From TrEMBL:
Organism: Candidatus Schekmanbacteria bacterium RBG_13_48_7
Name of the protein this chain belongs to: Glutathionylspermidine synthase pre-ATP-grasp-like domain-containing protein
Taxonomic classification: Bacteria, Candidatus Schekmaniibacteriota
SUPFAM superfamilies hit by this protein: Glutathione synthetase ATP-binding domain-like (SSF56059)
Gene3D superfamilies associated with the record: 3.30.1490.270
Amino acid sequence: MIDKELLERADKDYYNLLETAGKRGADASEQMKSLNKQMLEKNFTMKGKPFPTFLRPLFVDSKYKNPLRSICNNIMSSIEKVSDLFFKNKEYHHFFEMDPIDHELAMIDPHYPRRVIQARLDAFLYKDGSIKFLEFNCDSPSGMGWYDQLLRLYDALPIMKDFRKSYNAVFEPLLPPFYKMLRSKNKQFGNKDDAVFAIVCKNDSTIRNDVQLIIEHINEKEKHKAIFADPRDFSYDGKTLRVGDTPVGLIYRDAIQDFTDHLDEVKPVLNAFRDGKVCFINPFASRVGGLKCVLSFMTDDRTKHLFSNDEMKTIRETIPWTRFMRQEKTNYEGETIDLVEYVRKNKNLFVLKPNAGYGGFGVTIGHEVDQKHWDSVVETTQKEKWVVQEFVEIPQDNFPIFEPGLKWKMKNVNINFFAFDGQFGGGFTRISDGSIINVHQGGGLIPICYV
């Protein structure tokens, strides 16, 4: 399925080009310094520093895009089906760990099809083309503006110009399909085509610069009016939602906590959403699809009837064995086990994750902690809602670092696929020294380069 020889050759040629870059002009260190300088100038920053990146993309066989598209689309349709359990059967509510206010907000009808409109599917992609999905961000996946800015900066690097003399190297931006999705949902909702889009996060959010880049793309590239707003900036008269004097037809939001932490101050937005007066993306219902227990429902034989044959094939091949951590008997590797006790005694096989966690916080990898620590986390899982997931090997690759001269270091890699309205929309790659690969945990962002 994947042309391994092509990818090995591309890696080797890129390595050699970077090592010898100084013979043709700016050496690798100078190119990295220039990249960081441009990132600062363009506000491509997190907490005032250039967004962490490395002078090497992840190469993916271009012929693999169609299989990736099919896999991601099957995962998205499966997420919707698991979410239906929550919305159509009260017996499942306790699995999904929803606070009363989150539950109330999740029940608001968005007045368009689907619940998970935008998602990021976090996975490991191995050299042989196999994929393992670890979790899904269905609430407020960010980074699209940053990523497209990074692609523009990468495109201008001398190393990429040299590489393209031998390869048809393609970067695929995320914002064009993202905007296409906004237009589609706006139309399904019943708004006019020229409805103003508000891209919303808190003023002091760590993704504020990412949001600004999204706004600039919509205004400048798509020629559609988009504005920034904090969730507390709106007014509502029962008919029209506004920011200042500007009527707003569509809101693209950040995290649900931006609203639930300030309920009194965001009443205009919530009331307009309840009244069906604003197209709201993602609807709060999407959060259900991002809970870790969704993967448990996908891999449990008791719920396999929910899925089509194609979906079930994708699930079997790409989703690691996952279970809700509770006292029960279940199947693992063909045998019946007492779940909690088996997990306690076999820590090296498993990872424990808070059901509603995000940003990698709280994730505990069994083989990286001692038995005492593991036992303590297992006890926590019996008081709170957690899942256990089979540990899967973390893929690694070689990346250039500067100390100050050019060196190469193996780092852990995950690939993050975006889906817009249930359809594959591209992705980016994150790398880290640690096993938990997340920007909030010190990870870096690099492009996917199709060759």
